[in-house]
C-alpha cells in the first residue's frame, strides 16, 4: 500500500520524490517556530504535500481518447482537419515519451510552435522542463550510491536514503505545475494554528530542514521524535469537533508511551524475515485459486495426503480441475460453485521473505471482498487467462481485469506482476503471450503503473514455471524469472511504526478462550499485550488480552501485520466490521461528512449531487450520499475548471463532499494514507476513487 | 381510499370527505393536508366536568372536532397521521381556539376543507381513490451480514426490518463459524419475513442480493419451512422472485425496480415508473447535458421557453410550509401541462424520490437543448453553508 511506495518507487520515477518525507516526520516539526519567523524558513511541508499528491490525479486514465476528444471540442475549430490530425498524432507520440508530466495545453503550444514536428516539439518541451526531468536520473544515482544499511532495518533505510537527496534536489518554488490536491493551502493553516498552541516549542528538529544534516544525527533525532511525538501527540489537539473524549486512565499508559517504538520493533523484528502481503486478483476463472493452491503445494505447505483427498473429492463431484483451488476455497459453497467468494489467507516463506497470500475473489459481485483483501496487501499479482476468448472477456469492458487493476492502483499498490496463466491451453504460444503483454502494458501504463510490471507466463494447473524453471516448449522462448522469484523480487514497503496506532477490523469471531477476537490489519503504529485501546466510531474502550499472528501468540504487533486481537471489557455487539481500534490518546477522527478529491472512472451516468453510493475504505463498507460537488479540477494540472459543477462527466477529477449515513472513522490522506483512501461504487461498478482532503 | 363527498366550487374553495382504507391512503392524506386547512374528524378528548358541588370529574368523550391545522406529523412505521391545531367549531366539550391533536387513521372518515383546491391536490384525490393502483410488493435486499425487509407500495417504500449482523469470515481450517453465522443470519431474515410480510396482501416477494446469498437463503428457507411444516411459506413459494442486486443496502432497491423481471411482475407500480424516469434523466444528462436540468431556477427558465418535455418533481415540494412556494410549484406544473409536457410526481418515500430530493427535488428533460442555461451558475440551490 501507499506507505510502501517510497521504497520501491524511489528508483522508478521522479514523481515520487519527496513522497516519504511527508511521513518521514510529522508535519508539526516544521512549525515549531513563531509564525513570523516561519515565513523566512524553508517550508518543506508544502512542497511535499504537492509532490506527494502528484501521483494521484493520474491514478486512472481509463479512456484517454474520450477525454482528449471532449477536451478538444472548442479548440478543434481553430485547425483544419489535417492540422488537427497531425496535432493529435504528435501529441500522442510526445506523451509516449514524457508521460503526463507536462500539461496537454503546454504540449499543444509547443507542437504548433514547431509546426507539427514531433522532434522539435519534444526538444522544446524537454528543454523547458529540464530542471524537473533532470531530477529523476540524478536521484536514482544517488540512491544507488547510498550504502544500504542492511535489509533488516528496512523500515528505516528509506528515510536515511532519501531525505538528504530530496532536500537537495527539489528547487523550492520551481515546480511549473501544481498538480493534485490543493490541500496545503487550506489544511495546513489549521494544522499550523493548532501547532502554535501546542506546548511543544522547540523540538530537536528545528534545524531538520538543513540538508547538510548528517545521516547519523538523523537517526538519533528520529528515534527521539518517535518517543516524544507519541507522548505528546499532535492528534490530541486535532480538530475533531464534537468528538467525545474517551474516558481512559491517564496514568495507565503515559509511561509506556514513551517507550521507544522503534527499539521494540528492532528487537522483535530485527532478525526475522521481511513481511510481505501479496494479493492475487484477476477476472473470474482466471485461475487465481488454482495457481495459489499449486504454488503452496509445490512449496510443500500442503500435505500431499490432503491434496490427494481434494483430488478424490473434486473428482467425485466432477470438478477435477478445482482440486488445487480447494486449498484456499474452504467453504462448502465455494467448492460447490467452484468460485472464490471471500478472501482466502495463506502463508509461505521464501529465502528472504515471509509472504502472506491473499486470494481475492474474481467474480463481479464479490469485488467488495476483493477490496477488503487488497487493502491489506503491499503488492499484487494480476492473473489473466491466456485462453483465446477468455482473456478478451476478462479484459474488455465488463471484465474484472481492468477494474481490479484500477482498484489496485487507487488503493496505492504500485508493485504489480501480471501472471499469464493457462498458457498450456494455447500450446505455450509466444505470439499469444506477446499479444497479451502488449495489450496489458498499454493499459497498465494508462492506469498509472510504471514500467516495473513483470509478465510471467505459467500454468497453474500443470505447475509450469511456478517454482522450477520451465521445461520445453516454454523454455524455447522464455528465459525470465519463475513465479516464485518474481514474488521474491518484490520490495518490502516501509512500515509506519512511528505513527499513532490504528487497526482496522476486518473480521469478528469467537476465539478459543474467553472474550472474542477481532482480526484485521495494523495500519500504523504498534500494539502490545495489555494495552488499553479505543474502538471507534462507537467509542468503546477495551483491553487487549491476546495477540495472535498466524495462530501464534505474541506480545507486540506492528504496522503492516495481520493480527487477531482478543478483546475484553467490551461487548461484541459494540464492534463492527470496518471499525477502527486506536490509541485512546490519539483517537481517529469520526465524522459523517468529509471532502475528498476523486478521480471519476468511465461511468455510464455522470456523477451528480445526491447520488447514493457505497463507500469502501479499508474494510469499511458504508452507504453514503454525494452531497456536494465542490469543484471540478483539471485531471493533470489540478487547476480548478469549474466551481460547483452540475455534474461530473466520466474521466474527470473533482473535489466532492460525501455524507455517510452513520458516523465513520476517516483520516486525512496526508495524515495516514491507508485510512485516507476511499472508493465509491454504484450498482456493482466502481465509479470513482479518491483521497480524503477535509473532514468536517 | 373512499371518497364520501366532494364539494369544490369553481374558484377552488370547498371540502372533500374521505375514508382511508390502507396505509397508502394515509400517505395520500399526508400529502393532501397542508397547514391552514380545516380538518374535521372524530376523535377522543379528555374533558373535565365540574359538578354543582365543585368536585371535578374527567371523562373521555368521543366527539367530532374541526381544527385549523398547524402541524402535521406522519409516522411511517405505524402509518398514522397526527394533525395539531386549534379548534374552530365550538361544541359542548371543546371551546373555540382550544388545541387538539387529531389522529387520522385507517377506516376513520375525515373531511378536509381548503380555501383553494389546486389541480395537484384534486388529482391526488382521484389517484388515491383509484382502486386499481394497488400493488403491494415486498422486497428483501441482502448481502452477507446486512438485510433490509421493505414493503413497496405504489407511493411508499417502508423499511420494516433491518438485519445487521456480523458473520465471521472464513479462516484457514475453520469454516464452521462462518457457516454458523450464515445460518443464524438466514434464520433472522426468515423470522423477519414471517413477522413483517402479510402474504395475503403482497403480490410478490423479491429476494435480491449480490452473488449467491439469495439462492442460499431461498434454499435455507424452503428447507426450514419443510422441516417445521410452515404452510405460509410453502403455499406462497411461487411469490418469491430472485433478482440480482449489487448490495444489501436500501438504495439498491432502485436497481431491483429497474430489473425487467420485476417490472413485468409489478408493471404498473409507480415506483418502477419513477425509477425509469430518473434513469432517462441521468442518461440524457450524460449524452446531451443541455437537455437535462435540475434546480428550481433552471427549470423555471426552461419553462418560460416552453421547453419542458418531462417534469420530475418530488411531492415534498408540495408539502412545503410556505403557501407561496407551493403555489409557485403548482403553477409551474400547470403551465408545463398546458404546454403538453408530461408530469411525474415522485413520492419522497421511494428511493428514487429520495435521490430526486437530493437534486433539489425538481428536474426536467427538455424538448430541445438550451445551452445558455448551462453556463449560468445554479443560483439558489447553492445556498450552502460552508462550515
UniProtKB/TrEMBL annotation, chain A:
Pfam families, per database record: GTP-eEF1A_C, GTP_EFTU, GTP_EFTU_D2, HBS1_N
Which example biological process does GO assign this protein?
regulation of translation
Q: Where is this region: Disordered?
A: 131-167, 192-250
Q: Where in the cell is it found?
A: Cytoplasm
What keywords sit in the KW lines? Answer: Cytoplasm, GTP-binding, Hydrolase, Nucleotide-binding, Phosphoprotein, Protein biosynthesis, Translation regulation
Composition bias (Polar residues) maps to 155-166, 192-209, 227-240
Where's the Tr-type G domain?
273-494
Q: Where is the composition biased (Basic and acidic residues)?
A: 212-226
InterPro entries, per database record: EFTu-like_2, GTP-eEF1A_C, HBS1-like_N, HBS1-like_N_sf, P-loop_NTPase, T_Tr_GTP-bd_dom, TRAFAC_GTPase_members, Transl_B-barrel_sf
Superkingdom as given in the UniProt entry: Eukaryota
**A cellular component term (GO) from this record?**
cytoplasm
Q: Which reaction does it catalyse?
A: GTP + H2O = GDP + phosphate + H(+)
Q: Name one GO molecular function term.
A: GTP binding
Fetch the PANTHER family from UniProt.
TRANSLATION FACTOR
Q: Which family does it belong to?
A: Belongs to the TRAFAC class translation factor GTPase superfamily. Classic translation factor GTPase family. EF-Tu/EF-1A subfamily.
- Name the chain's protein: Tr-type G domain-containing protein
- Source organism (scientific name): Melipona bicolor
The organism's taxonomic lineage, starting at the top:
Eukaryota, Metazoa, Ecdysozoa, Arthropoda, Hexapoda
TrEMBL record, chain B:
> Cellular location of this protein?
Cytoplasm
One Gene Ontology CC term in the entry? cytoplasm
Against SMART domains, the record matches this protein to: eRF1_1
Q: Which GO terms describe its biological process?
A: nonfunctional rRNA decay; nuclear-transcribed mRNA catabolic process, no-go decay; nuclear-transcribed mRNA catabolic process, non-stop decay; ribosome disassembly; RNA surveillance
* Coiled-coil intervals: none
Q: What is its main location?
A: cytoplasm
Keyword Metal-binding listed: yes
Domain eRF1/Pelota-like N-terminal, by residue range, is 1-130
Which cofactors does this gene product need?
a divalent metal cation
Q: Name one GO molecular function term.
A: metal ion binding
Give the UniProt keywords, A-Z: Cytoplasm, Metal-binding
Member of which family?
Answer: Belongs to the eukaryotic release factor 1 family. Pelota subfamily.
What is its biological role?
Component of the Pelota-HBS1L complex, a complex that recognizes stalled ribosomes and triggers the No-Go Decay (NGD) pathway. In the Pelota-HBS1L complex, pelo recognizes ribosomes stalled at the 3' end of an mRNA and engages stalled ribosomes by destabilizing mRNA in the mRNA channel.
Q: What is this protein called?
A: Protein pelota homolog
Amino acid at each position: 500500500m501507499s506507505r510502501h511506495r517510497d521504497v520501491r518507487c524511489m528508483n522508478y520515477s521522479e514523481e515520487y520524490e519527496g513522497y516519504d518525507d511527508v511521513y518521514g516526520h510529522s508535519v508539526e516539526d516544521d512549525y515549531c517556530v513563531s509564525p513570523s519567523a516561519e515565513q523566512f524558513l524553508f517550508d518543506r511541508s508544502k512542497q511535499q504535500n504537492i509532490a506527494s499528491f502528484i501521483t494521484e490525479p493520474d491514478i486512472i486514465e481509463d479512456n484517454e481518447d474520450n477525454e482528449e476528444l471532449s477536451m478538444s471540442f472548442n479548440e478543434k475549430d481553430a485547425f483544419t482537419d489535417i492540422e488537427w490530425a497531425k496535432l493529435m498524432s504528435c501529441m500522442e507520440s510526445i506523451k509516449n515519451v514524457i508521460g503526463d508530466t507536462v500539461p496537454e495545453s503546454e504540449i499543444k503550444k509547443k507542437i504548433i510552435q514547431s509546426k507539427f514536428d514531433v522532434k522539435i516539439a519534444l526538444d522544446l518541451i524537454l528543454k523547458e522542463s529540464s530542471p524537473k526531468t533532470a531530477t529523476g536520473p540524478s536521484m536514482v544515482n544517488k540512491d544507488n550510491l547510498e550504502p544500504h544499511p542492511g535489509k533488516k532495518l528496512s523500515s528505516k533505510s528509506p528515510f536515511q536514503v532519501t531525505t538528504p537527496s530530496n532536500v537537495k534536489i527539489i528547487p523550492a518554488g520551481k515546480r511549473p505545475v501544481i498538480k493534485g490536491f490543493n490541500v496545503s493551502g487550506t489544511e495546513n493553516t489549521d494544522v499550523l494554528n493548532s501547532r502554535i498552541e501546542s506546548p511543544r516549542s522547540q523540538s530537536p528538529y528545528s534545524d531538520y530542514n538543513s540538508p547538510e544534516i548528517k545521516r547519523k544525527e538523523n537517526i538519533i533525532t528520529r528515534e527521539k521524535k518517535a518517543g516524544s511525538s507519541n507522548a505528546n501527540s499532535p492528534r490530541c489537539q486535532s480538530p475533531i469537533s464534537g468528538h467525545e473524549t474517551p474516558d481512559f486512565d491517564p496514568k495507565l499508559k503515559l509511561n509506556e508511551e514513551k517507550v521507544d517504538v522503534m527499539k521494540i520493533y528492532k528487537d522483535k523484528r530485527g532478525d526475522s524475515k521481511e513481511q510481505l502481503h501479496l494479493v492475487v486478483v484477476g477476472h473470474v476463472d482466471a485461475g487465481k485459486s488454482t495457481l495459489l493452491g499449486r504454488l503452496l503445494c509445490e512449496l510443500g505447505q500442503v500435505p500431499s495426503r490432503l491434496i490427494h483427498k481434494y483430488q478424490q473429492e473434486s473428482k467425485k463431484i466432477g470438478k477435477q480441475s478445482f482440486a488445487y483451488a480447494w486449498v484456499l476455497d474452504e467453504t462448502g459453497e465455494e467448492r460447490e460453485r467452484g468460485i472464490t467468494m471471500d478472501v482466502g489467507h495463506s502463508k509461505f516463506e521464501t529465502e528472504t521473505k515471509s509472504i502472506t497470500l491473499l486470494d481475492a475473489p474474481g467474480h463481479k459481485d464479490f469485488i467488495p471482498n476483493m477490496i477488503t483483501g487488497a487493502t491489506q496487501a503491499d503488492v499484487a499479482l494480476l492473473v489473466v487467462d491466456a485462453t483465446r476468448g477468455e482473456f478478451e472477456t476478462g479484459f474488455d469492458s465488463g471484465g474484472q481485469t481492468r477494474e481490479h487493476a484500477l482498484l489496485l492502483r487507487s488503493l496505492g499498490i504500485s508493485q504489480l506482476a501480471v501472471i499469464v496463466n493457462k498458457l498450456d491451453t494455447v500450446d505455450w504460444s509466444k505470439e499469444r503471450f506477446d499479444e497479451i503483454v502488449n495489450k496489458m502494458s498499454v493499459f497498465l501504463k494508462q492506469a498509472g503503473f510504471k514500467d516495473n510490471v513483470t509478465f510471467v507466463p505459467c500454468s497453474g494447473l500443470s505447475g509450469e514455471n511456478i517454482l522450477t524453471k520451465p521445461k520445453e516448449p516454454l523454455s524455447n522462448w522464455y528465459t525470465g524469472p519463475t513465479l516464485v522469484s518474481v514474488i521474491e523480487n518484490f520490495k518490502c514497503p516501509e512500515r509506519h511504526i512511528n505513527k499513532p496506532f490504528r487497526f482496522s477490523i476486518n473480521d469478528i469471531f469467537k476465539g478459543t478462550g474467553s472474550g472474542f477476537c477481532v482480526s484485521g490489519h495494523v495500519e500504523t503504529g504498534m500494539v502490545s499485550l495489555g494495552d488499553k485501546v479505543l474502538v471507534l466510531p462507537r467509542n468503546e474502550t477495551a483491553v487487549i488480552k491476546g495477540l495472535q499472528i498466524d495462530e501464534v501468540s505474541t506480545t507486540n504487533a506492528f504496522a503492516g501485520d495481520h493480527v487477531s486481537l482478543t478483546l475484553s471489557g467490551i461487548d461484541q455487539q459494540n464492534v463492527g466490521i470496518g471499525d477502527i481500534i486506536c490509541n485512546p490518546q490519539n483517537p481517529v477522527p469520526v465524522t459523517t461528512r468529509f471532502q475528498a478529491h476523486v478521480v471519476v472512472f468511465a461511468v455510464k451516468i455522470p456523477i451528480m449531487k445526491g447520488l447514493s453510493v457505497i463507500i469502501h475504505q479499508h474494510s469499511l463498507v458504508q452507504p453514503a450520499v454525494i452531497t456536494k460537488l465542490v469543484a471540478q479540477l483539471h485531471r493533470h494540472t489540478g487547476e480548478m475548471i469549474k466551481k460547483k459543477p452540475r455534474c461530473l462527466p466520466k474521466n474527470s477529477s473533482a473535489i466532492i463532499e460525501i455524507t455517510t449515513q452513520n458516523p465513520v472513522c476517516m483520516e486525512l490522506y496526508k495524515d495516514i494514507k491507508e485510512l485516507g483512501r476511499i472508493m465509491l461504487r454504484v450498482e456493482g461498478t466502481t465509479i470513482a476513487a479518491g483521497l480524503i482532503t477535509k473532514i468536517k | 381510499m373512499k371518497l364520501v363527498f366532494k364539494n369544490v366550487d369553481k374558484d377552488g374553495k370547498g371540502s372533500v370527505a374521505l375514508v382511508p382504507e390502507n396505509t397508502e391512503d394515509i400517505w395520500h392524506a399526508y400529502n393532501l393536508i397542508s397547514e391552514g386547512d380545516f380538518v374535521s374528524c372524530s376523535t377522543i378528548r379528555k374533558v373535565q366536568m365540574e359538578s354543582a358541588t365543585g368536585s371535578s370529574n374527567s371523562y373521555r368523550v368521543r366527539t367530532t372536532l374541526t381544527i385549523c391545522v398547524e402541524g402535521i406529523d406522519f409516522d411511517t412505521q405505524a402509518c398514522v397521521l397526527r394533525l395539531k391545531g386549534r379548534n374552530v367549531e365550538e361544541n359542548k366539550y371543546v371551546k373555540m381556539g382550544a388545541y387538539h391533536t387529531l389522529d387520522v387513521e385507517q377506516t376513520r372518515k375525515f373531511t378536509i376543507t381548503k380555501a383553494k383546491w389546486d389541480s395537484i391536490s384534486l388529482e391526488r384525490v382521484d389517484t388515491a381513490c383509484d382502486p386499481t393502483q394497488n400493488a403491494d410488493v415486498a422486497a428483501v435486499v441482502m448481502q452477507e451480514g446486512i438485510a433490509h425487509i421493505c414493503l413497496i407500495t405504489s407511493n411508499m417504500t417502508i423499511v420494516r426490518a433491518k438485519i445487521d449482523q456480523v458473520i465471521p469470515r472464513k479462516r484457514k481450517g475453520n469454516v464452521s463459524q462462518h457457516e454458523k453465522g450464515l445460518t443464524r443470519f438466514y434464520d433472522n431474515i426468515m423470522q423477519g419475513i414471517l413477522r413483517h410480510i402479510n402474504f395475503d396482501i403482497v403480490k410478490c416477494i423479491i429476494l435480491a442480493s449480490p452473488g449467491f446469498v439469495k439462492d442460499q437463503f431461498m434454499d435455507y428457507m424452503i428447507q426450514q419451512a419443510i422441516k417445521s411444516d410452515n404452510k405460509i411459506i410453502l403455499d406462497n413459494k411461487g411469490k418469491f422472485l430472485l433478482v440480482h442486486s449489487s448490495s444489501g443496502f436500501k438504495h439498491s432497491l432502485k436497481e431491483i425496480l429497474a430489473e425487467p423481471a420485476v417490472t413485468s411482475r409489478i408493471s404498473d407500480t409507480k415506483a418502477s415508473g419513477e425509477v425509469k424516469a430518473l434513469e432517462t434523466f441521468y442518461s440524457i444528462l450524460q449524452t446531451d447535458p443541455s437537455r437535462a436540468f435540475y434546480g428550481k431556477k433552471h427549470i423555471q427558465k426552461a419553462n418560460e421557453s416552453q421547453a419542458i418535455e418531462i417534469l420530475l418533481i418530488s411531492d415534498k415540494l408540495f408539502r412545503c410550509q410556505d403557501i407561496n412556494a407551493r403555489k409557485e410549484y403548482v403553477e409551474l406544473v400547470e403551465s408545463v401541462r398546458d404546454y403538453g409536457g408530461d408530469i411525474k410526481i415522485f413520492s419522497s418515500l421511494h428511493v428514487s424520490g429520495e435521490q430526486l430530493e437530493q437534486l433539489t427535488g425538481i428536474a426536467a428533460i427538455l424538448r430541445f437543448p438550451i445551452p445558455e442555461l448551462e453556463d449560468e451558475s445554479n443560483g439558489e440551490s447553492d445556498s450552502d453553508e460552508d462550515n
